TrEMBL record:
The organism's taxonomic lineage, starting at the top: Bacteria, Bacillati, Bacillota, Bacilli, Bacillales
Membrane spanning stretches: 21-46, 58-78, 106-127, 139-162, 174-197, 203-225
Presence of keyword ATP-binding: no
InterPro entries xref list: DUF624
This protein's UniProt keywords: Membrane, Transmembrane, Transmembrane helix
Transmembrane found in the keyword field: yes
Protein name in UniProt: DUF624 domain-containing protein
Amino acid sequence: METRGIMGGLYRISEWIMRISVTNILWLLCSAPFFFCFVMMLIMANSNFMNEVLQMKWLMGILAPFTLFPATAAMFSVTRKWVMGDVDAKLLKTFFSSYKANYKQAMLGGIFYTVLAVIMYAGYTIYMTEMQSMQVLGIMVLAMLVVFLASLFNFFSIIAHYHATTLQVIKNSIFMTIFRPIRVVVSGIVSVAILFMGLKYPVIIIFGAGSLIAYLSFFNFYLTYQKLQQAVEAREAAES
């Protein structure tokens, strides 16, 4: 009986590793143009080809809304299934059906996030380098940029979890990040740790970093979402 239990546990662990790995590889493949440019940028940066590095950054910004954002939304839809208890959901079917269904919304959100992030980063750079008497504003812009980028955890989770207009998704993502920041901060810290480990051991990036971050992010989002739902239901019950 003890041997059966050990074998069953090992089988479940191997299943989880397989799910995480397959989902992560699908994400990388569907985001391949973006990550190709990212790798080329790193190579050029190490070779001091700074003009080419700038070109790669612009190309990444152009490609992100059309590749990285839809693929990430699809990955969050898969990890949502796991958090919701449907661990046996078919990976390929769930990923690609979600990719197709949410492509337009993820793309539009990606354009918004990319354009605004570029504008805010440019503003920060100008304040900190060319207008040094206004560096306080630069710090404020940087803080806003961090909050804005952190809201991406909620953005992808909301797309995966329920239907809303793109504007509503972005608005709710930012509001949840500002007014319920603790779990977003936790997601951010753990995500940075996973990526840091991935720099040391690239196999983590290839076979698990993205899907692990997506799973953790949706898990934290769902806990926050449940608390908000309970608060709304309690208020409605008190008013009735």
